[in-house]
Every structure is written in structure tokens, then in C-alpha cells.
Design a protein that fits this description.
- By secondary structure, the chain is of the alpha/beta class.
- The chain is 48% helix and 16% strand.
- The protein has 21 helices and 20 strands.
- The structure holds gamma-amino-butanoic acid.
């Protein structure tokens, strides 16, 4: 029984072979890998009709593969590497040998299948895969394609940025796939070589929202993308939500997405079609030319436009596949390329007297496989998608690049980047490009830096008050000099009061020196020195006089001894020299420099295209903290000590030291104003105008008050001719230490009055 079966099978086999030989027709078997369902690029179904038309034309031609019957079989690769490889293997193991693999339409599928198809000695030709890595002959030894690899689109993108629209800043975002990483790396390399600044390079796997947000935060305007169209939809939806769309934002996608890819319904997208349309409007698309731009007759005896008409009226044509119309030319052409390469191989085999013809090919025939591979590399045709040949034996065709833009909700052809010319040039389609309001978007927010200056009205007002203060100082100085022999003046140490007036004038002068606006290191030094010395001189004059009162009334011996002005001058000189020394060391160690300081919180937007950033010019010294705080501490200690002395002598009434009471008031005044001024200067550090206004106000107010406290009583006394008797002067001291115990004591003014 077993023998019977065997004989039966052998008979059957012989019958098939005989049958084949009998009608003298061998099959040339092509296996198509079409991504029809799945994710990524799923336009495989659109390839079927062009394949059918091409096979009809080749058969009708009669001179290609004569005596053979060309067949085309396909699998749905689902744009998935695993499924593509699995289904291809299945075909290899269950079907008679194929002569060529045609596909995949997806790069991910082509990458997986072409790494193994060559092991079956098969040449593989893809109509549509555009991943740059497929050009690598070491990884994909027998792979060809009709699609231009996406990195070649980068040349157009760079040309567009530099030469067409003068954009020098861009950002990138790509899907995490080797395909898209390589395209993006290529763009980054070319951009860097062309001095294009890259704001950020975003990568995402699934949800691009945070990456899109980052683009927005980086103020990206020109954004180069590399991704499949399902991810492009997610990106646009995220862009809509983030507000990263509109006439000022330029998205650049690849052109091989389906025609209205942004409107394709997608369960993963929660944006309405209207929102997607808004986000996509104005986006650019770059791709290889889909159809021969030259109106010439190609293979099949027709022009590209004739071919399209034929396709359109064909009974098998279904409009639902129109979004993938761009693949029609390449799909038609790749069948011709395959047939011509196999025809070439057949002729070659016959010419070299090979025992086998192409029809006898098995997967073990590496020599035939090599001949087919060589023949494919040598093909050159005028196809429906353009002139096709493979550059220098490489995997890729040379083609012009088409630039499109979504305008008014439609993809509009703008022009062609000619890579066949030297230098490469861009041929515009007249009047195709329409910018909103005829304005080319900027590559970044235009930033205007504006210096914050002290408003002239404020400055003039302050200067007027300071000027009046100076006049007042000079009036008091004149009074002091004129009435120097008047006892009221004489008894109040007029020389020390002159020093006080000098300090006051310096205080007023300080406010004339603006802390910002055209500052130089000299102005920085002048302001610091002026203010520091002004304060020190004024205060030390007050302090020294208070100290004298305190000394006299806390030391009985001194009652009969004169504390001379020279001693007070010595105190002033010591304090001033100490502060001067600190200032000198400060400027030697860490001199002032002028720095522009940008104020983050001070920004104005003009539209969303121009940003005005405000800055102030400030005096900066690296070690200023140490010196400033040393000065604060010294002045603070003196202020505290002075206030203490004034408090201790608050009940003293000495007509001989006739202004002691007022000096005390001045000290309190200085203490309070200094404390408030210091606090405000720390709080308002970055608010230059406010700080200038407040500190100047405090300075003018405090200085004027000091002058008035000291001089008004004297002027009043002199003008009203109050006799400053030196007899019967009463002095009352409350030291708080029980030294005078509040006792009143009298003393001869001539003993204690500090006459000069
Ligand atoms: N035919 C569209 C290209 C997509 C891809 O290479 O995967």
C-alpha cells in the first residue's frame, strides 16, 4: 500500500513537470510585502491596482521575459517587522521559489525582511521604504528601493532654512525608532555644519505631549519631525493643546504621509478634526517626487499623467485609497524594474550558457541570485515616478525633492529641489506659497533688550530737591561764617558744624550720580565713595559732638576741662580714615565693574513675536558682600553707640553746648532712616528705579532734617537776638549710671564751652 502511494506521488510530480514543459510556460514569481493593516504606514492596499496595471503592460509588451508567466503574490506585513518576517518565511516554505521580494512598504518591515531574504539568494526591491539605514549594503546586501531615503530630504530642509527663508534656529522631534533617529542625526549634522542652532532635540516613544510642551518652552518655531503619521497626529493634537501652532509655527513633516493625514480618524487622538486642521495648517512636507515632472513617455508607453488617468477610470479604483495616491508611480515602476532585472538575468544566463534559465531558479542558486542583483543595479528606466537609476551601484535612486505645504486645509505643491543640478537649486511653482499676511515666520522670538532708566521726571525732581538742599547747606555755611563770633554760634562748635555741612553737601551730591544708565566703573566708584564718605563725615560730626556732651557729663573732672574741637576733628578723621581705608582695599581687591543685569520678571510681548527684555546696568564687585557688610557693621556700631550716647544725655541742657539736644535728635533721625534705608535697599535689590527714588528721598530728607535740627535753632537765636548768657547756665545730666544722679549742676561756661 505504501509503495502504491509513493508511485502515485511520483506520477503526479511527473505529470506537473510534463505539464509545465508541455505548455512551455514557467512562472516568474514575485512576492509582495504590503502593509495593509496595522500601524505606521498602511497604504499597501493602494499598491495592488498599479501592480495589476504594470503586469498587464509587461505581458502586453511581449519582449520582457518572453515565454514566462509573471505572477505576483503578496502578504499583509502590517508594518510590523515580526509579522513581515513570519509571513515571508511561511511563503518561502509553503510555495514554490519566488524570484524576487518586492517590499516592504514600511521601512521597519523592509529592514527585518531584507536582512534574511538575501540568505535565500533573493534580490529585494521596495517601492516605498525610506529609512536611511536601508542604504547600508553590509546589513541589507541585496536590497534596492525606489523611495528616496529620508535623509536626502534633509538637504531640502537645510536649503529651505538657509536659502529660502533665512531661518537659523530649529528644533527636532522624532519617534524612537532607528529609522527616525538616523534621519534626525543626519539633519543635526547638516544643520550644525550650516550654522543652524538647535534649540532642542525631542524623542518620544508613545505619547509626545511632554516633548511638545518642551518645544513650546524652548520657544521652538521651526520644528523638524521624523515619525510615522499616526505619531504625527498625536504630535499635532498635543501641539494644539499646547498652543504650538499658528502662523508663527512651522512644522516640517515627511511627504509620504497619507494625503490628509491630520484628518484621519484615530481612536488615540482626542482632538476634533477642526482642532487638527488648525494645528496642521501651514505645515511643510518634503518628499521625493511621486510622478515624473517631465511630460515624457515612459515604460508602458504612457506619460505619468496618462497613467494617472488610466488608474482613475479603472474599475478596480476605489477612492478610499486616494490618500495613498503618491505611491502609485513607484508601485507601477517597481514591477517594471523587477521584470526588467529578471529579464536581464535570464538573457545573461542564456548568454553565458548557464544550465539553468531564470525560470529554474531555486533558493540555492547563489550565482543566479547574484546575476539578478547585478541586473537590478544596472536598470535605468523612465518610470511613472520619474527617471530611475541606482547611483553608483547603491540602493537608492536619485530624484528631485518636492516641497509641499498645507494651505487652506490642502496639500499644495510649492516647488522642487533639484539634486540633479550643480549647485542644487530650488524651482518654485509660481504663486503657490502664500504666507499669512505675507509675513515669513521668524525662527525665534525677536528679542529687544531695553535698559531700565530712571525716569527723567523722577531724576530731575530729586536733583532739584538735592540742589535746594545744597543751597541750604551753603546758606547755613555762610551763616556759620558770618556769625562765627556770635556767642550762639561760637558755643556750638561752628568748625564741627562746617564739617557736618560738608558731609551734608556730599550726601546731596550722591543722588546726582545715577546708579544705572551709562554707568562706568568710575561712576560706580564715585557713587560708593561719595555716599560712604558723606554718611561717615555727617555722622561722625554728630557723633563727636554727642560724645563730648557725654564725656563732660559723665566725668566730673572734665567739667573743668575743655574738650577742644581738635579732639573732635581727630575722632572724625579716625572714622573717615578707617572707612576710606576699607574703600581703598575694596577697590584694590575687587574693583567695581559694570554689568548688564537682565530682569526676568520684566518682559513685554509685542504680539507673540517680539519680546522686550529689560535690563539694568549695575555696579558689580565680586567681593562686595564682605566689604559692604564690613562697612555696614562699622557704621552700624557707631550708629548704635551714637544713639546710646544721645539717649544717655537726653536730659542734658547746656546752653554752653547749646545744640546738644538737637544733635541727639539728629542721631536718632540718622539711625532710623539708615535702618529703614538699608532694609529697603536689600528688599528692592532688583527694582532699580524704586530703589533710587526711595534711597534718594531718604537721603535728601534725612540730610535736610539734620541741617534744620542743627541750624534752625541757631538762626532763630541769632535773628531774635536771644542772649546766650554764660552765666547761670544750668546743666542737667542723667547718665543712667547714677553718676550725676539727675542732680543739677552749674558750671562756668568758660571752663567747658568749646570755644575755638
Ligand atoms: N512608503 C512610506 C514610507 C514609510 C517607511 O519607509 O516606513
Amino acid at each position: 500500500m505504501r509503495h502504491f502511494s509513493l508511485i502515485f506521488l511520483l506520477l503526479l510530480k511527473n505529470i506537473r513537470i510534463i505539464g509545465c514543459v508541455g505548455n512551455n510556460t514557467k512562472n516568474i514569481r514575485l512576492l509582495g510585502l504590503l502593509p495593509i493593516t496595522g500601524k505606521g504606514w498602511v497604504g499597501g492596499a493602494a499598491v495592488k491596482l498599479p501592480v495589476k496595471l504594470a503586469l498587464e503592460d509587461i505581458r502586453a509588451n511581449g519582449s520582457i521575459l518572453p515565454g514566462y508567466n509573471i505572477t505576483y503574490d503578496f502578504i499583509d506585513s502590517q508594518c510590523s517587522p515580526g509579522i513581515a518576517v513570519y509571513r515571508m518565511f511561511e511563503k518561502f516554505h509553503t510555495e514554490p521559489p519566488y524570484h524576487m521580494v518586492l517590499g516592504d512598504g514600511c521601512s521597519t518591515g523592509s529592514e527585518a525582511t531584507s536582512q534574511v531574504s538575501y540568505l535565500w539568494n533573493l534580490t529585494q526591491l521596495s517601492f516605498g521604504s525610506s529609512s536611511p539605514i536601508l542604504s547600508d549594503r553590509t546589513r541589507f546586501p541585496k536590497f534596492y528601493r525606489l523611495a528616496v531615503p529620508d535623509q536626502k530630504l534633509n538637504d531640502l530642509r537645510i536649503h529651505m532654512m538657509k536659502n529660502l527663508f533665512n531661518w537659523n534656529i530649529a528644533a527636532t522631534i522624532h519617534q524612537a525608532e532607528e529609522f527616525f533617529s538616523v534621519v534626525t542625526d543626519d539633519f543635526v549634522e547638516k544643520a550644525t555644519a550650516n550654522n543652524i542652532t538647535l534649540l532642542s532635540q525631542e524623542i518620544f516613544m508613545h505619547d509626545p505631549h511632554t516633548r511638545v510642551k518642551n518645544l513650546k518652552n524652548n520657544d521652538a518655531r521651526i520644528i523638524m519631525t521624523a515619525m510615522y503619521e499616526d505619531r504625527a497626529r498625536s504630535v499635532l493634537c498635543a501641539a494644539y493643546k499646547e498652543g504650538l501652532f499658528g502662523p508663527k509655527i512651522v512644522w516640517v513633516f515627511v511627504g509620504w504621509f497619507s494625503t490628509n493625514f491630520w484628518l484621519v480618524s484615530d481612536p488615540l487622538i482626542d482632538c476634533t478634526p477642526e482642532q487638527m486642521a488648525l494645528a496642521a495648517e501651514g505645515a511643510f512636507l518634503s518628499s521625493a517626487t511621486y510622478y515624473n515632472p517631465v511630460d515624457e513617455t515612459g515604460v508602458g508607453g504612457m506619460t505619468a499623467s496618462e497613467y494617472l488617468k488610466r488608474w482613475e477610470i479603472h474599475p478596480d479604483h476605489t477612492p478610499d485609497l486616494d490618500p495613498f495616491k503618491f505611491v502609485l508611480g513607484q508601485s507601477y515602476d517597481h514591477i517594471w524594474m523587477a521584470a526588467l532585472a529578471l529579464d536581464c538575468a535570464d538573457k545573461k544566463l542564456r548568454s553565458i550558457g548557464h544550465p539553468k534559465t531564470i525560470g529554474d531558479f531555486t533558493y540555492k542558486d547563489s550565482d543566479i541570485g547574484e546575476i539578478v542583483f547585478q541586473c537590478m543595479g544596472n536598470q535605468s528606466i523612465i518610470g511613472m515616478s520619474g527617471r530611475i537609476s541606482f547611483a553608483k551601484g547603491g540602493a537608492d535612486p536619485d530624484k528631485s525633492i518636492l516641497l509641499q505645504r498645507i494651505q487652506g486645509g490642502h496639500r499644495i505643491n510649492l516647488g522642487y529641489y533639484r539634486q540633479d543640478t550643480y549647485p542644487n537649486r530650488f524651482d518654485w511653482i509660481p504663486d503657490a506659497l502664500k504666507w499669512k499676511d505675507n509675513k515669513i515666520p521668524r525662527d525665534s522670538t525677536f528679542v529687544i533688550h531695553k535698559e531700565i532708566v530712571i525716569p527723567p521726571t523722577l531724576y530731575i525732581t530729586i536733583c532739584v530737591f538735592a540742589g535746594l538742599g545744597i543751597i541750604l547747606s551753603f546758606l547755613f555755611l555762610s551763616f556759620n561764617i558770618y556769625y562765627r563770633n556770635n556767642r550762639n554760634v561760637k558755643l556750638s562748635s561752628p568748625n564741627i558744624n562746617n564739617v557736618l555741612l560738608f558731609g551734608c553737601v556730599l550726601c546731596y551730591v550722591t543722588v546726582f550720580i545715577r546708579p544705572t544708565e551709562n554707568v562706568t566703573s568710575a561712576t560706580c566708584k564715585a557713587r560708593a565713595v561719595c555716599f560712604c564718605l558723606a554718611f561717615t563725615i555727617t555722622f561722625s560730626a554728630l557723633f563727636s559732638k554727642t560724645w563730648r556732651v557725654y564725656r563732660i557729663f559723665t566725668n566730673k573732672k572734665l567739667l573743668r576741662r575743655t574738650i577742644k574741637d581738635i579732639q573732635l576733628f581727630a575722632i572724625i578723621a579716625i572714622i573717615v580714615m578707617l572707612l576710606t581705608a576699607i574703600l581703598i582695599v575694596w577697590q584694590l581687591v575687587s574693583p567695581f565693574q559694570v554689568e548688564a543685569h537682565e530682569l526676568d520678571f520684566e518682559k513685554d510681548m509685542v504680539g507673540n513675536d517680539v519680546e522686550v527684555r529689560f535690563f539694568v546696568q549695575t555696579c558689580v564687585s565680586k567681593q562686595s558682600t564682605y566689604f559692604v557688610w564690613t562697612i555696614y557693621i562699622i557704621e552700624g556700631m557707631m550708629l548704635s553707640f551714637g544713639a546710646f550716647l544721645a539717649w544717655e544725655t537726653r536730659h542734658v541742657k547746656i546752653e554752653a553746648l547749646n545744640d546738644s539736644h538737637h544733635i541727639g535728635l539728629c542721631l536718632y533721625n540718622v539711625v532710623i532712616l539708615s535702618a529703614v534705608g538699608l532694609t529697603l535697599s536689600l528688599v528692592l535689590e532688583n527694582q532699580m528705579v524704586l530703589l533710587y527714588g526711595i534711597t534718594s528721598g531718604f537721603l535728601i530728607f534725612g540730610t535736610t532734617l539734620t541741617q534744620l535740627f542743627v541750624f534752625v535753632p541757631k538762626v532763630h537765636a541769632v535773628l531774635t537776638k536771644v542772649d546766650c548768657s554764660i552765666k547761670g547756665v544750668t546743666a542737667t545730666a542723667n547718665t543712667g549710671q547714677g553718676r550725676s544722679q539727675g542732680n543739677a549742676s552749674t558750671f562756668p561756661a568758660s571752663d567747658s564751652a568749646p570755644e575755638n
